């Protein structure tokens, strides 16, 4: 099974270097690592000399980043290269030594080959002066409390596609084509991965949580709720509601409302207070 890891990136050079180190230390290395640089020519210098790594340029202008389009660009290149298994790994994530091996093993099993595969992601504290010790990431990281945590050799059947996330997941080429990729109407932060999960569900693609295919999310400052992304979230939430009939990112929308940043009209549609107009459809 030919494997391709797809990583989209803008900035985050230190995170990308640690991811490259993690892939190099893996029990099984990917046959190809496609790094999609979103309007960032410096990425080529960051990955210079990395084995089995190719940089793709995803042009973008001012405004929200085309994250969905960048992932689809990486997938098309992987398929053109003959990849049987597409593994998406956010630039923030360092793969465990078994990540590639476990995704490939589970994807090759008849019971799971047509599924959307998600590995568990645990969250790391800030790195020390020497970075993170690759041989002890599990001892540092805390699992996400709202996601399944399968044992190292366990595969759990997911019952809620709303829990899908794009931090770390894999599909066979056939399953990717069945889902049809990410909806490129989404730009900027939030919503496109929830939409992908719903597309998979309506396409009859089951969800599996793959123990042993762990990834470790590197620390970076975040705000909760992510007020700096409020316009992206409102626009993408509106697109999602048009497509699926319900509002995603409900916790963030509620927090924005509680802070007086948005209001809802009689139909429940959120509006930015002071923006002067409804978020355009």
Descriptive terms for the model:
281 residues, alpha/beta, Spore Coat Polysaccharide Biosynthesis Protein SpsA, Chain A, 2 domains, eight-stranded mixed sheet, four-stranded mixed sheet, 14 strands, 30% helix, 21% strand, globular, disordered C terminus
**Regions with little confidence, pLDDT below 50 for 5+ residues:** 276-281
Q: How helix-rich are the residues, as a percent range?
A: 25-40%
> Which structural class do you get from the secondary structure elements?
alpha/beta
Q: How many beta-strand segments?
A: 14
Overall average residue pLDDT:
94
Largest sheet: 8 strands, mixed
CATH architecture of the largest domain: Alpha-Beta Complex
Order of helices and strands: EHEHEHEEHEEHEEEHHEEHHEE
CATH superfamily of the largest domain: Spore Coat Polysaccharide Biosynthesis Protein SpsA, Chain A
CATH topology of the largest domain: Spore Coat Polysaccharide Biosynthesis Protein SpsA, Chain A
């Amino acid at each position: 099974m030919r494997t391709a890891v797809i990583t989209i990136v803008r900035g985050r050079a230190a995170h990308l270097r640690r991811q490259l180190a993690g892939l190099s230390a893996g029990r099984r290395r990917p046959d190809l690592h496609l790094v999609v640089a979103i309007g960032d020519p410096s990425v080529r210098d960051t990955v210079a000399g990395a084995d089995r790594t190719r940089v793709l340029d995803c042009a973008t202008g001012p405004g929200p980043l085309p994250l969905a389009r960048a992932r689809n660009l990486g997938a098309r290149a992987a398929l053109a290269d003959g990849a049987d298994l597409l593994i998406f790994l956010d630039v923030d994530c360092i793969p465990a030594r078994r990540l590639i091996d476990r995704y490939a093993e589970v994807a090759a099993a008849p019971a799971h080959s047509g599924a959307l595969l998600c590995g568990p992601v645990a969250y790391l504290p800030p790195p020390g002066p020497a970075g993170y010790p690759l041989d002890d990431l599990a001892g540092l990281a805390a699992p996400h409390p709202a996601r399944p945590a399968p044992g190292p050799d366990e595969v759990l059947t997911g019952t809620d596609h709303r829990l899908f996330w794009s931090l770390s997941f894999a599909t066979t080429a056939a399953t990717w084509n069945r889902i049809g990729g990410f909806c490129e109407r989404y730009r900027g932060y939030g919503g496109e991965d929830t939409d992908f999960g719903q597309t998979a569900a309506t396409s009859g693609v089951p969800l599996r949580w793959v123990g042993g295919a762990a990834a470790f999310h590197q620390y970076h400052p975040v705000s909760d709720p992510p007020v700096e992304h409020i316009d992206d979230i409102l626009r993408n939430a509106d697109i999602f509601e048009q497509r699926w009939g319900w509002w995603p990112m409900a916790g963030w929308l509620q927090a924005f409302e509680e802070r007086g940043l948005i209001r809802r009209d009689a139909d429940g549609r959120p509006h930015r207070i002071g923006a002067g107009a409804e978020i355009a459809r």
